[in-house]
What we know:
Blueprint: E1 14-17, E2 25-29, H1 47-51, H2 60-71, E3 74-78, E4 100-101, E5 104-105, H3 114-138, E6 145-152, E7 155-156, E8 159-160, E9 165-168, H4 174-181, E10 191-193, H5 205-211, E11 217-224, H6 231-251
Parallel strand pairs: 2-3, 2-6, 6-11, 9-10
Antiparallel strand pairs: 1-3, 4-5, 7-8, 9-11
Helix pairs in contact: 2-6, 4-6
Amino acid sequence: MESSALDIDFGPVVHIRPASGAPEVLVLCEHASNRVPAGMGDLGLSAEALQSHIAWDPGAMPMARVIAEKLNAVFVWGGVSRLVYDCNRPPDAASAMPPVSEVYRIPGNQSLSDTARAARVRSVYDPFCAAVQDQIDRHAHSLRLLVTIHSFSPTFHGRTREVQIGVLHGQDTRFATAMVQAAPAGLPFEMRLNEPYSAADGVAHSLDLHGARNGLANVMLEVRNDLITTGPQQDAMAGHIARWIEATRSQQEPGV
Length: 256
């Protein structure tokens, strides 16, 4: 698989849906797709593995799309599997092209050479980051908030996760903390700060790189994927989250 790394057609690795007017929110969904480019041999994985959470964030993309619609946000999402390259990780992170994900060994990611890794960085990560930065630059006078949308599995390494919605932060803690404080009284989900992951797990890369570095308030939202398996569930969850974000923004300083 690696021998042809420089010849692989990675296809569309990033997608953008612009907003009307002067958007104040940018929504990202880095793990929107489980697509593996032709020529990479499905990374040696079964179809079942490529449908699982190790390859993408099930339910996250359609939910993020509706959230972006409701917030009149710019929406940017990834076009290849996180196993090809995880755009929420820097190039020097082992998890950017993981040789193992939970209990799965990823044959196509074993012992990657510097040349093969560089090809994926150049073909996936760099264009994704460039697209996000371009949108931030285009809307520099109006953008105030970056929201990244993810989903997580109900069990991990055999352990059940009770949390249903995770509110995560990176270097800038302000908006995540404000969201926890502004959680609707009747929110019918178990919500926790910095669960099931936190910045210590390396998941705050996008928040820090695209959000904090550009002076944008930022937050990462993780939704347990058994809650968003159907279109109606995704739409309903998107409605809860969009209203929650708007309520939080209304309590912040003007323009945040």
